[in-house]
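Example for tutorial group B:
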């Protein structure tokens, strides 16, 4: 009884350590570009959480000021034509932009995984029907369709924008996941699970999906990037709720206020740079995930130097001749 009493807590205590060790190991394996992207994205997520509390002024405050003013010590990013602090508007608006990207990524990726794995594993009429549905949604022009959908709801809320983006953002990932599922459905571990009588849903959830985590992660990152850039474009066109601040809404008011004609570069440069840096972080993460899963894309730092040539992990095993021993009599 003595050993049993103390080994159970030891096992429970060892699980968090194992999880932390796995996370640390994954972080070390990530390429540098992915690490940089994760750090930048983490900064934006922190700003999305604490941004409204850090805003130095009320983002919706209106003064009698008629012209935008350039950056000063009191307004680091300048003001707009109504006297609003651009920095405060951005700190409040980052939350909405990040929310749209992350929630759309979660919903669209869930649909991609559900439809892609079901179509690839079930095959037959189920595969043909789901593939046809995916192809129909895929060929629809996304941005014009979103404009039409959101035009029926004036001042569309963030939730409506998320649903609209998710409705047209899942087919790309579904096609890729379906193709990967087709290559996995006849593997030994899937056939063994089928032989022991495992139901289809259990094979999909516990056998197929865990073997596509890297692909699903890349699909999620790509969908988040698509959602952020498209939501900014929709807000810039005035198709979202303009009373809720986002980076796209800041750009909309800059365009409506003739910021370019007035030479108020700070009014559109700073929010535009924020959108570009946020998008760049997701692109770096996506490239890093591709590099991690594909040895041919790894950087030259991972090359093995043999003789006078550098060998990649996927190259044939080099054969080096020992000339010194070959010339011995």
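The residue assignment follows.
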């Amino acid at each position: 009884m003595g050993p049993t009493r103390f080994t159970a807590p030891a096992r429970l205590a060892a699980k968090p350590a194992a999880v932390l060790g796995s996370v640390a190991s994954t972080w070390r394996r990530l390429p540098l570009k992915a690490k940089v992207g994760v750090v930048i994205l983490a900064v934006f997520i922190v700003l999305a959480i604490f941004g409204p509390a850090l805003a130095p002024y009320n983002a919706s405050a209106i003064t009698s000021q008629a012209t935008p003013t350039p950056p000063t010590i009191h307004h680091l990013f300048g003001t707009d034509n109504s006297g609003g602090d651009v920095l405060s508007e951005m700190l409040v608006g980052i939350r909405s932009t990040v929310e749209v990207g992350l929630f759309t990524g979660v919903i669209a990726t869930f649909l991609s995984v559900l439809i892609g794995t079901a179509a690839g594993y079930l095959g037959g009429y189920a595969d043909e029907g789901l593939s046809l549905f995916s192809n129909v949604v895929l060929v629809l022009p996304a941005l014009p369709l979103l404009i039409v959908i959101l035009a029926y709801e004036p001042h569309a809320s963030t939730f409506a924008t998320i649903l609209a983006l998710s409705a047209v953002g899942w087919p790309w990932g579904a096609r890729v996941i379906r193709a990967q599922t087709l290559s996995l459905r006849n593997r030994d571990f899937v056939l063994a699970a089928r032989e022991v009588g495992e139901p289809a849903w259990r094979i999909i959830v516990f056998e197929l999906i865990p073997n596509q985590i890297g692909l699903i992660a890349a699909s999620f990152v790509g969908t988040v990037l698509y959602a952020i850039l498209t939501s900014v474009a929709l807000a810039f066109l005035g198709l979202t709720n303009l009373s809720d601040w986002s980076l796209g809404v800041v750009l909309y008011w800059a365009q409506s206020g003739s910021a370019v004609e007035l030479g108020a570069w700070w009014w559109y440069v700073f929010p535009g740079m924020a959108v570009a840096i946020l998008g760049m972080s997701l692109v770096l993460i996506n490239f890093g995930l591709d590099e991690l899963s594909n040895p041919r894309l790894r950087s030259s730092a991972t090359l093995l130097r043999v003789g006078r040539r550098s060998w990649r992990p996927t190259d044939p095993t080099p054969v080096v001749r020992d000339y010194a021993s070959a010339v011995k009599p």
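The longest helix spans residues 86-122. Compare this with the pattern of hydrophobic and polar residues in the output above.
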